[in-house]
Amino acid sequence: MIEVLAHNLAPIIFASLVIFLLIGYPVAFSLAANGLVFFVIAVWLAPYSNGEITLDWPLLGTMPQRLWGILSNETLLAIPFFTFMGIILERSGMAEDLLDTIGQLFGPIRGGLAFAVILVGALLAATTGVVAASVIAMGLISLPIMLRYGYDRRTATGVIAASGTLAQIIPPSLVLIILADQLGRSVGDMYTGAIIPGLILTGMYMGYVCMIAIFQPHRVPALPIEARTLGGGVTSLFVMLILIGFFGFLSEVSALMDRTAVQLTVLEPVAAALSRFDEEVSLLFGGGVNADVWRLSAAVVAAYVIAVADRYLRINLLSRLTQQVIIVLIPPLSLIFLVLGTIFIGLATPTEGGAMGAVGAMILAFAKGRFRFPVLQSALVATTRLSAFVMFVLIGARMFSLTFYGVNGHVWVEELLTGVPGGQYGFLLVVNLIIFVLGFFIDFFEIAFILVPLLIAPAQNLGIDLIWLGVIIGVNLQTSFLTPPFGFALFYLRSVAAKVPYLDKLTGKKMDGIRTSEIYKGAIPFIIVQVSMIFIVVFFPQIVMHYKGPVVDPNSIEIIVPSLVPLAPGGAEGAPAGVPGLPGAPTLGAPNLGGTTNPPPSGGTAPGGLPQLGAPPVITP
Amino acid sequence: MQALLALSRGIDRVTEFVGKSVIWAILLAVLVSAANAISRKFFNVSSNAWLELQWYLFGISFMGAAAYTLQVNEHIRIDVFYGSRSRRTQHWIDLLGHIFFLMPFVILMSWYLWSYTLQAYWSGQISTNAGGLLIWPARAMLLAGFILLVLQGLSEIIKKIDIMRGLMEDPHPFQSAQEQALKEVEELAAEVAAANALARNTEVKR
């Protein structure tokens, strides 16, 4: 009897974990208690288990070391940073401005308000990792407008709830940070892998609205003339866009001109002039790869300055719509570049990007006059609260995993999941079904901390790339925010949408309240879009796998190791500053030892982790 | 009983003070991290001490806030079952949870962390990274966080018994996720309304 118990401890632990969690005591401590109780039982059963259970009392003493591991994890710092950034932006009224302006921009076309909501949802998603903010803002601002001008209620609510969940999959999302950490991959890779699926998903939402606009136009009418408060004037917006594009991508434009000039000789002088201009401008920005980035930034800043000057000096060269669009859109876009751009090109680690984004958000809020002491304080309180409970769920999960791995639970899960018929696809199907169902009841934090680490070994056995798996899980977890009855995006929308009939302020017409069933039904088409997105990521892994960069043939790499030239004592001439120490170079002076070190950006995709010994090895393709 | 309640109030005051103070550590961590990133990129100056300081600060905030989060009943729960029970059943779950789930774990961790911290303190251990910080303050932080949790657990048990005997009101009754979302929405809606009013005023002035 005891032997049977000892052999089947892993399934027993797992089953009782489910019960422990469902009782409803805080997850962090239920997890820890489950781990602790079964640790005691397992140690007692160990002699009867034929060595399957590898737990003994001293092992419990390694818990402080595990806690230390959680504390000193630099990746997890990104969680408070991006949360803080998101909350500050949420309080800065950015969402409101964006919705107003982009709504006016797209309003005149059919389905325009819905497009605006999706676009703003994606933009907000790229600045924060929090769902609440965008759903609430859109529910408060866009929903009444959509209803006022005759949008179908289900379409309106569905679009808003779905766009809000984009924050979960478009970087810098908290889900992706936690998934990357739990899967043992870099957050930067996870972000790079998730960006294209995130954009495709945004596109699919828009495609759905587009279909409605074509086939059932009465469900998504255009804004009537009297509602277009900013007036028309799209021409000047196009002119500005073309100018930004021209200056921002001058090199590319010039190269294109050169190519066309070969055929159309008339254009030759123009092409030549353009090349000269391009060279001069490039020189101005220091040349090199970074010059492109600097030039584009300069073009964007110039557009912003022009729009502001145009408005406040009352020159009114641009239409009011153009002014407004440029003034409202450029600051958040710059912030997105500051954060995501620097992470993607490997300039900053995700943690650093989060910190700079948080500072940028504070500056933005300050510039808008919305950065007051209570705002800062409440943002910090909310961030600390979230950090405390997330980190303690992680602490509890470590206690649990100590026991669970000690009884070879991971082997049990591995055998269970590797044994699924159908290889990779069978595994992915089962895992996704489990996560989809769990997503109805429990938060993504628990799924990520308990379940995801257990998937690593079976996934690797089946040759599944972990970033790919992470993105699939990310899309799946995003869906859980949208599924009735517990989907959070639906909660948030429910709580801001009017429950009882109300009088529209502008038209004075009596409007019906939104029924909960309408919100649920509105979400269904978008859930279908989500689920098809999971399949797309599964069957077209290349939309994720590009994070690895171009494939390098290992045979074609030739590594030339430079001969070590003895350095003059105390001198470091010719050697890059800050070399952490040269093994086997006894003449190295003391000052270099223990000098400042530059940690390689862990988020970068480049193999920046190569230790620099003397001169870096030259790699020739 | 009065003495116990007084003890509980004292504990609550301490954890509240700590929990509300440590929020500033997050702001500091943000600033340190941003400054470090900028100086690393532009002046090529960086040090492990600054890098480590970031997670020391983050550690201060989440370890310091854990006990206060428990006090205001905001540690995350799965409320599918719990949320639909009567108040009395919820009290029982909480009380038994405090005694059998929370306390053994936090007491045990405090016990282990005590020697773990002392060992680092006596040996004056320094982080293995070049230019790293002293290790014992960070370990002491872990220890302090768990000791606060032990104290808060005690206070919660005292309060829970009194609440169940009808001697006091529940200061932080359980809120379901829906209710919390609603609270958050109301706060935000008020802010949006205030901002709109402000915008309208400025428009009028113009």
Would you kindly provide a written description of the structure presented here, covering whatever features stand out?
- The complex is a heterodimer of chains A (621) and B (206).
- Chain A is mainly alpha-helical.
- In chain A, helix 8 runs parallel beside helix 10, helix 10 packs across helix 24 and helix 20 packs across helix 22.
- The termini of chain A are far apart.
- Chain A is globular.
- The C terminus of chain A is likely disordered.
- In chain B, helix 1 packs antiparallel against helix 3 and helix 1 crosses helix 6.
- Chain B is 79% helix and 0% strand.
- Chain B contains seven helices and no strands.
Structural class of chain B: mainly alpha
| Separation, N- and C-terminal Cα atoms of chain B | 64 Å
Total number of helices of chain B: 7
Kindly provide the radius of gyration of chain B, computed on alpha-carbon positions and rounded to a whole number of angstroms.
22 Å
* Helix and strand composition category of chain A: mainly alpha
Write out the strand line-up for the largest beta sheet of chain A, numbering strands in chain order.
1-2
How widely separated are the two ends of chain A?
A: 64 Å
Question: Helix count of chain A?
Answer: 26
Rg of chain A, nearest Å? 28 Å
Give the tally of β-strands of chain B: 0
Largest sheet of chain B: none
Order of helices and strands of chain B: HHHHHHH
- Helical content of chain B stands at over 70%
Measured by residues with Cβ under 8 Å of the partner chain's Cβ, the largest interface is: A-B, 86 and 81 residues
- The percent range for strand residues of chain B is under 5%
Residue-averaged pLDDT of chain A, rounded?
82
Q: Globular, elongated, flat, extended or rod-shaped: what is the shape of chain B?
A: flat
| Portion in beta strands of chain A | under 5%
Q: How many E strands of chain A?
A: 4
